[in-house]
Amino acid sequence: MKTRIFIKFIAGLAALITVALVMIGLLTSRVIDSKYMASRWRELDEKASMLEASGAASNPESLPAMARAAGVRITLIARDGSVIADTATDASHMENHAGRPEVIEALAGRKGASIRRSNSFGTEYIYFAEPVPQGVLRLSVPLAEVREEQAAIRRRTLESAALAFIPVVLIALYLAHNTADRLGSIIAYAGELANGNFHARLRDLRSGELAILGRKLNDTSAKLERTVQQLQTEHTELEKLERIRKDFVINVSHELRTPLASIQGYTETLLDGAIHDEKNNIRFLNIIRHNAERLARLTADLLALSRIEMKTQQFRFGHYRVNELLADVIDTIRPIAAKKRIELRQELATAGAEVYCDSEAIYQILSNLVDNAVKYTPELGTITIGVKPYTTGNAAARMLELFVQDTGIGIPVEDQSRLFERFYRVDKARSRELGGTGLGLAIVKHLVRTHGGEVWVNSEINKGATFFFTLPVDEFEPQSQSELHPEFTAS
Ligand SMILES: Nc1ncnc2c1ncn2[C@@H]1O[C@H](COP(=O)(O)OP(=O)(O)O)[C@@H](O)[C@H]1O
Ligand SMILES: [Mg+2]
pTM above 0.90? Predict the structure, then answer.
């Protein structure tokens, strides 16, 4: 590519120089011809004057020597036109010259000149005639000689012009090579772009229009690279969302199918006669009730989740005393904890400390966390519910940190990051046995984020788990959930 551009440059340059030389040749040869002719006339005029002054006309014998010395042919013509002497041929054989244009002029007393074919030699001559007392003194030179000299001068002029072009050609070659080089790399770069390699950049741009073009191409590829990356990220994100959506549908169907199948099975057994089997009928009915309750819990949790996600849940934000919010939950949970002889502790905030929240949502969050704590803590354990100032993280917003700590079975580290996904459970069978749906923590995460807060867990297996979440102290503008976290709807 580079060599092709270079060859085109050179061809163009050669054409340009040829045209320039032809033009120079044409223009200078005209000037040279007319100047040269004029000087030849002048020379002949001067020579004629000198010959006349030296009395050559009255002494025809001296003419040949003078003609040799002056480098001209001399003809002496009488007033009647007859040739008295000629230094190039025998005068006696020459016809009457009275009719020759230069002779006519000289006979009339003026200087005469003409260029024409010589009758005596058959070739062209330049004639110059001057009146002398004897008649006419005529000097002539063959035109061919003059033409030869003119051609020589023209040749020399052209040669010097061509020589003068050498530095021009060298500079042009250098520039052409340089430009071809840079253009070549820009074209190669454009090829890279066309092939989708937006990673490449043009280096060593220097200055000028090519540099501007290079920079623009660099900008373009940077933009394209960013766009492609963005599209790739979005694509991956969409794929992830789609996978999660499919998993969710499969999970929901699966979760619904088990209790439904159980209800259907036991109902049929009862209808088939087991209703009269007094040993089993109540047990079967209890199983049916148990599964119906499970279905009710599942649908209630699914509804709660979808209401938050579809933003149909109306939140009523306000300033609430955080200690009162905790007390509400503790009061509810106390009898259940007492059954398992679990000690409930509180670490309250300073009196009057407030958070900006929806009190119903906070009740939902805390009761889900405390419910888990009771479920996953063996008898005689301890559950602590508390508040403390939130110190780490973004200092721009004032936050309080709420926590629910237990001394239960704990959560393996590898499960901790996925705990807040829908239907994710460390031990499915155990969760089901305990009446769990696997949706509690997903609801908690959504609700916390609606408040602009974060939720996380700290746990050591067999030592217990602590769930933390933050709540804003000051009033804030609740953002749409998907704006808050793009992956929000994903888990
Ligand atoms: N306090 C806790 N101690 C141990 N494991 C917990 C605790 N809280 C939650 N988990 C684990 O997280 C899983 C998800 O909790 P959650 O979403 O509330 O579902 P569910 O309680 O219905 O099983 C539980 O199944 C359990 O494995
Ligand atoms: Mg739960």
Answer: no
